[in-house]
User: Fold these one by one.
Assistant:
Number 1:
Amino acid sequence: MKKRAAGLAARFTFLLASAGLLSACVTREPFIPGHLPAGAQRAVELDATPFFSQDKYQCGPAALATLLVASNADTTPEALVPVVYLPARKGSLQVEMLAAPRKFGRLSYALSRNLESVIEELAAGRPVLVLHNYGLSFWPRWHYAVVIGYDAATDRFILRSGKKRRQEWRARTFMVAWHHGGRWAMVVLRPGETPASADPTLYLQSAADFERGASPADSRLAFDAAVQRWPAEPVAWIGRGTAEYRAGNLANAARDYATALRIDPNNLGARNNLAQSLLDLGCPARALELLRAVKFDAPASPLEAAVLDTRKHVEAALTSTPVVEPSRCSSLF
Amino acid sequence: MKHSPWRKFAVGILSVAILNMGMAGAASAAIVDTAELVTADRAADMSVVRSQLDRAEVRAQMEKMGLDAAAVDRRVASLNDRELHRLAVDMQNAPAGGDAVWLVGAVFIVLIILELTGVIDIFKKT
C-alpha cells in the first residue's frame, strides 16, 4: 500500500517535471506590455495603499477595507466582517462586496472583464480588488486580493493578499487565477470620481444604486461627474436633476431634467420629473403642457403610473385655484 | 358580534394589501428615482411581487448560513432589488472569496503548468 502510494507520487512528480521541462521549451511573450493602454506608465506601485492582514477565510473584509481606507473612508476589516462575511460559505459574495461601499458614502464599480481596465485603474492611482480562483471548475477555491501595481519590464503584478503585505505575481500566473475567477474586479470611488475605464451605462447604474442611500450633495457629485464626462447621456442629467430636487434646488432640477428631455424626447422619466418640478415651482400650466401629449388608457409600468399620477396632481392644481403663472415660469429653461 | 378567526385573517391580509397600495401611490406622486430609469434595471423588469419573493428567499438563506436575525435585517436592507434577485438565484454556489490552503497551492501549480505548456490556453480569443 505504502509502496503504491510512493509509486503514484513518483509518477506525479515525473509528470510535473516533464511538464515543467516542456514549459521551458515554450516561449511566451511578456504579457503586460501588450495590454498597456495608451498613455499608461510602464510601471506603477501604489505604495500608500494600506494593508490589513486577513484572518481565516476573511479576505473579503480585509480586501474591502484596503480599498475603502485607500479612498479615505474610516473602517477596519473587523467592522466589515458583519457586513460581508457569510459563515456557512466561509467567504464573501461579490454582490455584497459591491453593495458595502455605499454604507461609507462610496460608489463601487465592477470593471469590464479585461486586463486593460485593471491596468488603467492602477495607472489612474486606484487599487483594484480582484477575485482569484486557485481551484478547478468543479472544486473552486475563491480568494479576494488587491492589485496595487504592475511592472511592464518584469511582466509582474504587485498585490496585497492574505497575510502578505507585498507579493509579486508573474502576469501569466495572475491571469490564470483571475481568468478562473471569472475575470471579476472592482474599484471603490469617492463621489465625483469616475473610473478611468468606465462604461457610461455601467457607471450610471452604479451611481443610481448609490443615489438611494446617499446625501443629495454626494449624489450630485456622482452625477455631475457623469454630466461632465458623458454630456449626451440623458440619465446623467436626470440623476443630477434629482440630486438638485432632493436638495430643494427646484429651478436647477428643472433645468437638468429639461436638458435630458431635449436629448431624449421619449424619456418618460425626465418628462415626469420635469413636470413634477414645475408643479412644485408653482408652474402647473407649464407642467401640463409637458404631460398633455402623454396618454395611456391603463398604465403598463410603475413609471407610466407615476406619470398619470403627476398629471392628476397638475390638473388638480390648475382647477383648485385660478393660477396666474408667475413670469419666472417661462424663463426657467 | 364575534368575528371568526378566518374573517380576522382575511381582514388582516386585506389591510396589509391596502396599506401597500397606499404606499405605492404615495411613492409615485413625486419624482421617479434614477435607478428606475437606468436601462439595465428597466430590462430586468422588476415586479413588486418578485422582489418580495427574492427578499424572503435571501433572508431565509442568510439565516441558514449562520447570520443572526439582526444582521440579516441590516444586510437585506442594504441591497436593492437587482442585488437581492442575484443572491436569491445563486447564493449557494456564487463565488465566495475566502482562503487559500496548501492543497489548493498544489492544484494551482498544475493549472499554471498546463497553461504554460499550452494544454489549456486561457488567452485565446473567444
Number 2:
Amino acid sequence: MIAFWMLAPVMVLCAVGMLFARKAVHAALLLAVVMISLAVLYLVQDAPFLFAVQIIVYTGAILMLFLFVVMLVGVDASDSVVETIRGHRLFTGIVGLGFGLTLVLGVAQVSFGTVIGLDSANEQGNVPAIAEVLFTRYVFAFEVTSALLITAALGAMVLAHRERLTPKPSQASLAAQRMRDYAEHGRHPGPLPPPGVFARSNSVDTPALLPDGTASEASISRVLAARGTVKSVPELSDEIKELDMPEAGE
Amino acid sequence: MSTTPFIILSAILFTIGAVGVLTRRNALVVFMCVELMLNASNLALITFSRANGNLDGQIAAFFVMVVAAAEVVVGLAIIMTIFRTRRSASVDDASLLKY
Amino acid sequence: MVNLEALHELPPAVGSAPTDGAFSLLWLVIALPALGAAVLLLGGKRTDKWGHLLATAAVIGSFVISLILFFSLTGRDSGDRQVTQHLWNWFTTGSYSVNFDLLYDQLSAVFLLLITGVGSLIHVYSIGYMEHDVRRRRFFGYLNLFVAAMLVLILAADYVGVFLGWEGVGLASYLLIGFWQHKPSAAAAAKKAFVINRVGDIGLSLGTALIFITFGSTSFAVVSAGSHEASSGALTGIGLLLLLAACGKSAQFPLQSWLLDAMEGPTPVSALIHAATMVTAGVYLIVRSNFIFSLTEDARTAVIIIGCITLLMGAVIGCAKDDIKKALAGSTMSQIGYMVLAAGLGPAGYAFAIFHLLTHGFFKANMFLGAGSVMHGMNDDVNMRNYGALRKAMPITFATFGIGYLAILGVPPFAGFWSKDKIIETAFADNFLVGLCALVGAGVTAFYMTRLMLLTYFGEKRWEKDVHPHESPKVMTYPLIALAVLSAFGGLFTLNSWISDWLAPVVGEHGEHELGIPAIVMSLIILVVVALGVAVAVQLVGKREVPKVAPEKVSVFTRAARADLYGDAFNDEVIVKPGVAGIRGLAVFDRSVVDGGVEGLATALSAISGRFRLLQNGFVRSYALALLAGATIVIFALLAVNFG
C-alpha cells in the first residue's frame, strides 16, 4: 500500500496535467509517467507479467509510436486554449464531475468482500499460470487477436500508403535534371563538400575550407547555421595556426 | 491490502481521461486520453483479478492491451492521413458531417 | 279461366319460349354485321376494294333473315309469338346471373325490320355517297358496327344487354359524327354528343341498378313478371331514370342540344343513326319497359311533359334553320317528341309510338337521303338560301322528297297521316292541353317543312356560280325511291288496327279511347291546322324574295330559334359554369385547406426539425459529451436501482 499511496497522487497529478498541457509532447511524457506508475501498481498486485507487458507494449511501443507521430505532425504545434464550441467546457465540467462522483461514490458504497489474493493461482509462477489459462480457456480469443493484429497492420499500411502520381525518376533523368539546373541557375552539379575537414571534436559543425582559406557555406547543415553553433572561420584560423605551429617548429 | 483505493483511483483516472477526450482538440492528445481510459480500466481489471483470486482479469487486461495496440496503429495512421490532407490535427476541423 | 279484369290491369309479362326452327338463326342477325365490322376494321387496307360491298351484303343478309323470322313469327299463334334464344351465360356473381339471351317478339320484330331494312337501303346509298372518300372502308366498318350494336340493343332480353347495345350505338354514333375528323366542328360535335349521351347513360346504368335492387334480376322476363308487386316509389324511380336515359339517346329536352351538332357527320349517318334508328332507342326503351311505365302514373306524366316540350322546341328550331340538315334535325327532335309523348300515354299510346317511329323512320330517312342527294349535287353546300328551283334539276330527288314531305305533314293517305293522327287523337283523349300541344306542333311542322320545300325546290335559282346541280347516280336514287314507296304506303300497317293488335301481346291491350268528337272530325281539324301552317309558309316564304344572307333584324323568337332556343347557352349557364366554378372552388379548397393542412404539418415538423438539427453540429466532441452524459445517467440509474 505504500507504493500505492506514493504513486496515486503522482498519477492523478500527471493525468490532470495532461488536460492542461499545451504541447502534445508534454502530454505524451505525462502519460508515460502514468503508465510506468501503473506498471508498478500491476507488480504490486501480483501481476509481474502484465508489469513487463505494460512497460514493453505501452511505454515502449505505443508511446514511442505516439512520439513519432508527434514528430511528424510537428513538435511545435501547440493547442489554443480557447474553447470554440459554446458552453462545451461548462457542460463537460458538469458531466465529468457528475460521472466521476457517481463512479467514486458508487464504488465507495460497494464492499468487495474479502480479498482472496493470487498466491494460490500464482503457485507455479505468474507467467506459467497465465500461459495455462491463455492457451486453454482463451485459446480461441488469443488466435483471433492474431487476426486482429494482422488486420490492423494491413490497415495502417493501406492508410499510410501514398499513391505515386509522377513516374519514378531514373538515374539518367536525375542527372539530366542536375545538368539543367546548372545550365539555368548555375547550381553546383557535383556533390556538396563534406564538412569538418579540419575537425577535431564534432566535425559536423565545422565548415570545410576552400582552397583560398574561406569557409564553404554549402558544407554545413542549414539548421546548424541557423542555430549559430557553427564555428566561424576566424575561430578556425587560430586552430589552424595552432596546428601549423608544431609543424613550423619542427 | 484493500481493493477499494485501487478501484477509486481507476475511476478517477477514467474520468480524467474522459474529460480530456471532451476538452482537448488535438487529435493526438485526445488519443492519449483514450489510452489513459483504457489503462484505468486495466487497473480495475487487475485489481478485481487479485480480489477474486483467479487470473481471468489479468487475461482480460492482456487482451485490452492487444486491442489497444491494434487500435493505436490504425488510429495514428488515420490521424496521419487526415493531417496529410488537411494540414491539421484538430478534431473540430473534421466537422463536415452536420446539419 | 284467366281473370280478364286482372289481365286488363296488369301489363303483359315477357314470355320465354325456346327457339326452334327458323328462330335459331336469330343470333345470325347480329353476327353478320358484327363480322362485317370486324373484317373491315381489323382487315386494314386489304379490304379497301371490296369492303363496302361486304358491309352492304352483311346488312342485307341480316335483313333477309329478319324477313324470314318475321314471317315465321306471323305464322304462329298471337299468344305464342315471344321467342328467347339463350346464347351463353354472360356472368354470374352470387345469386345474380346475367345471361346473354336474345328476345324476339313482336316489338323486336318490327324494329329488326326497320333497322336492317332502312339500314340496307342506307348502306346501298352510301356506296354512291361515299364513293370519293378515301376512308370509305372505315365508314362502312363503323356503319356495320352501329347496326350490330343497335341489334344487340333491341334483341337483348336483359337490361344489361340493352346497356351493352346502348353503349355500342353511342360509340358508333361518336365515331360517325366525327368521321370527318379533320373538321374541328365535327370533332367537337362528336365529343359533345358523346358527353351528353353519357349523362343519359348514367340514367340507364342507375336505372338498371335500381331494377336489380328492386327485383333481384335484370332480365325482362323476371322484371315484367314481378313489376306489379314492386313499390310505386321504386317504379317511379326506375321510370324517371329510364326516362333520363331516353332523353340522352333520343335528344329530348333537356339533353337535346347534341342532335343539331351531330349533323356534322356524313348525311347517311344522319339519316340512319340520327333520324331513323338510334335516336328512337329512347322510345324503344320506354315501350319495352311498358311493364314499369304502365304502373307508374308519375313517371308517365314526366314522359308526356318531356315529349310535349321537345316536340314544340324541335319544331320551333326547325323553323329558323337555314342549314337543310339542321332543319331536318329539328324536325327529328320534334317527331321523336311525338313518339315520347305517345309512349307516355301508356298502353293507349305505345303502339302508336312504335307506329310513328316506323313511319318516321321511313319518311325521315327518305328526306335526309334526299337532302344528301341535294348536297351531292350542290357541292356539299347545306345552306338552303343558296338552293332554289331544284325540282327540275333533280326530279327524282324532288319527287321522293315530296312524298316524304307529304308524309310528315300527315296528308292522307301517306304514312304520317295514320301515325300522327292517332297520336294527336290519343293525346286529346288523355288531356286537352297535351292534345293542343300536339296539334300546334303539327301546324308548326307544316310551316317549317313547307319552308324547307319552297327554299329548296321552288322559287328563284340562288345557286353559287360554279354549282351545276345534277341528279344523283342510281345507287343513290333507288334507295330514295324505295323509301318514298314506304313513306307513301307505310300507313297501311294500321289498316284494320293491325299494328295495335300485333303489338298488344307486348305492350298490353287498351280499350277504345273516348273522344268527344268523331275521329273523322278530329282528322279534319288536324288537316285544317296543317293547311294553315302550309298557307302561312307560302305567304311568308314562297311569295317573297329570299335574301342571300339571313336577315339580322328579326323578332326575338326567330333569334331564339336560330340559337337552338338557347339550349347550349342554357347548358353553359346551368351546368358548365357552375361546374367550372365548383371545381375551381374545390381546387382552391384542395390547395388551401387540404394541402395547407398537410403542408402546414410538414412545415411545422420541418421547422421543429430545423431547431433540433442544430444539435448535430458535426463536432465529435459534442457527440462524445452526449455519450458520456448518457453513460452517466445509465450508471446512475443502475446504482439507484441497486441501492434504492
